[in-house]
Amino acid sequence: MSLQASYNTLTVEINNKVAHIVLNRPDELNSMNVDFWHEFPQVIDAINNLSAARAIVISSTGKHFCAGMDLAVFSANNDTDNIELGRKHEQLRRLVLRLQACFTVLESVRMPVLMAIQGGCIGGAVDMVTAADCRYCTRDAFFSIEETKLGMTADVGTLQRLPKLISIGLVKELAYTGRRMPADEAKQAGLVNHVYDDHQSMLDAVLGMAAEMATRSPLAVAGCKEMINYARDHSVADSLNYMSVWQSGMFQPQNDMMEIFTAKAQKREPQFAELTQIDPSKIF
Questions:
Q1: pLDDT in tens, 86-117
Q2: For residue 108, what pLDDT is reported?
Q3: Which residue from 59, 180, 230, 239 has the highest number of Cβ atoms inside 10 Å of its Cβ?
Q4: Which residue stretches, if any, does this entry annotate as coiled coil (predicted)?
Q5: Which of 171, 148, 158, 72 is nearest to 121 (CA)?
Q6: Terminal Cα-to-Cα distance of the chain (whole angstroms)
């Protein structure tokens, strides 16, 4: 698996161990067309498998971050007239699971994923950003679970992840009404970490934050992500037990910790080995 030179729906740059993925269909409000659903998880997987970066920033172009699912995605999967009803519905279920997996990859990758959001973050875009580690937005940003306005239930992760980020009563209000939650309310509710006055100041700050994360031990940061996500979905007792298992295997003080002490003594920045690359085509 490799990173391509170009994509139809996004661009990718890697500098100083930070991968910057930019949604790049501003004229279409960066809506998630068929190409997006192939390219987005492919890029994230490639960065993870190649250990190409230690942090990922996802931003966008134009007035709005993302208008959600492109309706063409639905029409692309409508050739099911001659399929028996039970099998037709089983096929639809597998499609939903595939779409969910496109955003679950943001949780499963070993490096932090930071979202920089301007303007509208609508429908499927909320599914996407709730799967990230941290969210930041501009003052003109708003978040909207639009699906009930279309007569459907959000099905790609919003209703499962958002209640872990903000109060469940607020999630229900947003989901039932489809109203827009503005940036300041999102910050107060805990959905976003910080609100910036404009797009450029947000990008500068978020890329800077990712760069700082990239200076830390990638193994230690991966461990933090693994443990925090596990604790979110399990009891305290189970999470503490898993922490003991992780630490007994992954914590090797003679490596990264010793490098930190040595670097301090030598008055230099520590240098850490990258996480190993993964080749999905090879079992051994």
A1: 998 998 899 999 999 999 999 999 999 999 99
A2: 97
A3: 59
A4: none
A5: 158
A6: 16
Q: Is 39 helix (H, G, I), strand (E, B) or coil?
A: helix
Q: Using the 8-state DSSP alphabet, how is residue 187 labeled?
A: H
- Phi, psi values for residue 172, rounded to 5°: -65, -40
Contact partners, residue 131, CB within 8 Å, separation at least 6 = 103, 104, 106, 107, 113, 157, 161
Q: Domain 10-214: state its class.
A: alpha beta
Question: Cα–Cα distances in Å, from 170 out to 34, 148, 211?
Answer: 31, 15, 33
pLDDT tens digits, 136-151: 999 999 999 999 999 9
Low-confidence ranges of the chain (pLDDT < 50): none
Question: Which amino acid is residue 56, in one-letter code?
Answer: I
Amino acid type, 140: D
Please give the pLDDT value at position 212. Answer: 98
Tell me if residue 157 falls in helix, strand or coil: coil
Predicted confidence at residue 239, as pLDDT, reads 97
Q: What share of the chain is helix, strand, coil (3-state, %, to 5)?
A: 50, 15, 35
Cβ-defined contacts of 177-181 (< 8 Å, 24+): 177/148, 178/144, 178/145, 178/146, 178/147, 178/148, 178/149, 179/144, 180/142, 180/143, 180/144, 181/142, 181/143, 181/144
CATH 1.10.12.10 fits 216-284, yes or no: yes
- Distance between CA 233 and CA 55 in Å, rounded? 23
Of 141, 149, 133, 97, whose CA–CA distance to 117 is shortest? 141
